[in-house]
């Protein structure tokens, strides 16, 4: 049976996210989120009359980034086996997520990648991450 390394990989954009783990052979998705799903319904507080000049689409993305940061915080707090975090998102989303990470989780951030990889299949993701940067051995092809 393959062993998992102690890193949570989070691949996000403004409306979708997924959490992955490396199982010894490749990264595998174990949890998905969507801005319009029941688990993280970022549409909930959009369209306030108090902010008439705010773009509702931008509000959804900002709220979703906060919710994903909360999910990351929760995942790393609940699973003591997770020692690190690798985060990939477009620059503006990456900034919003990092702003809402707890201090303890922010210390576990090994690497952040300013790329939108949400539509990249699991088996193609490994080539986008620098394994030596995580501190765990390089995967042999």
Automatic annotation (TrEMBL):
Residues 114-141 are annotated as: Disordered. Residues 114-131 have a biased composition (Basic and acidic residues). GO terms for biological process: intein-mediated protein splicing. Gene3D superfamilies: eRF1 domain 2 (3.30.420.60). InterPro entries: eFR1_2_sf (IPR042226), Host_attachment_protein (IPR019291), Intein_N (IPR006141). Pfam families: Host_attach. This is Attachment protein.
């Amino acid at each position: 049976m393959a062993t998992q390394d102690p890193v949570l990989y989070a691949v996000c954009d403004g409306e979708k996210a997924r959490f992955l783990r490396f199982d010894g052979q490749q990264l595998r998705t174990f949890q998905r989120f969507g801005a319009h799903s029941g688990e993280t319904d970022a549409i909930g507080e959009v369209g306030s009359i108090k902010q008439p000049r705010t773009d509702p689409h931008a509000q959804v993305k900002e709220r979703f980034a906060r919710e994903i940061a909360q999910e990351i915080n929760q995942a790393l707090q609940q699973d003591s086996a997770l020692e690190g975090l690798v985060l990939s998102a477009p620059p503006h989303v990456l900034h919003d997520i990092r702003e809402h990470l707890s201090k303890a989780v922010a210390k576990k951030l090994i690497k952040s990648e300013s790329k939108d990889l949400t539509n990249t299949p699991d088996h193609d993701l490994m080539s986008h991450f620098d394994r030596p940067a995580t501190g765990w051995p390089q995967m042999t092809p």
